[in-house]
Amino acid sequence: MSGAGGGGGAYSFSLTTFSPSGKLVQIEHALAAVSQGTTSLGIKASNGIVIATEKKSSSILIDDSVIEKVAVICPNIGIVYSGMGPDFRVLVARARKSAQAYWKIYGEYPPTRVLTQEIATVMQQATQSGGVRPFGVSLLVAGWDQNRGPTLYQVDPSGSYWAWKASAIGKNMINAKTFLEKRYNDDISLEDAIHTALLTLKEGFEGQMTEKTIEIGVITVPSAEDLVVPVGGRPKPVFRKLTEEEVRDYLAL
């Protein structure tokens, strides 16, 4: 057993047992799965947030119009992932259910931190139970609420989450973060953040970057008029996914 894979010895196969060095080796393996996923990133601007990712299909025969890597959770929150798609699908369903439950009780959609904490709790529970494995995804959660304004969170397979000004996950994470550190400033506008996101993705992009091979979602800080909710209605969405035409226009600049 001492020669078991991943350098963790016998502990490589146990999720709920710490190794002598204090590690849960399966979580490290889950992070390895994330690092093999396509690059995703998020940038917080002065007037919004952009999240972007590569969207590549494994075959030209796949209908890429149904591939979704940026997901709308509720009108004020969207998420993007790197890692295993099926795991992401499960977390998206949980997050949407949680957001609707919050709406039903409080008459408003959850603050970004509250929903992020809900997702992180689901992921953490998968690290402390027998017979399961950690989620093989890292998430970038972008949202806006009246208390904190626009916020960007990263959630990892361990259930840890942090707020970021800009972050990247996936296979080109290190180079992307280095690029963002050089380009980022606190006064960056949403338009500049979108261009920076495209430049960052282009750094490690294999093949040609087109409107069909990347996906972008944006949070736009609402005006006072946008916050007025009609009786019996719902608030105007502040998160949306850019259309292929909009992405094409940004790539042409």
What does this structure look like?
It is built from 6 helices and 10 strands; from the N terminus they run αββββααββββααββα. The chain has helices at residues 25-35, 85-106, 112-125, 173-183, 190-203, 244-252; strands spanning 40-45, 48-54, 70-74, 77-83, 137-145, 149-155, 161-163, 166-169, 214-220, 239-241. The strands form 2 sheets. The protein has a 5-stranded antiparallel beta sheet with strand order 8-1-2-9-10. It has a 5-stranded antiparallel beta sheet with strand order 3-4-5-6-7. Helix 2 (85-106) crosses helix 3. It is globular. It starts with 24 loop residues before the first helix and ends with a helix.
Quick description:
By secondary structure, the protein is an alpha+beta fold. The protein contains 6 helices and 10 strands; from the N terminus they run αββββααββββααββα.
Query: How much is the average pLDDT?
Result: 90
Strand order of the biggest β-sheet: 8-1-2-9-10
**Main sheet?**
5 strands, antiparallel
How many separate helices?
A: 6
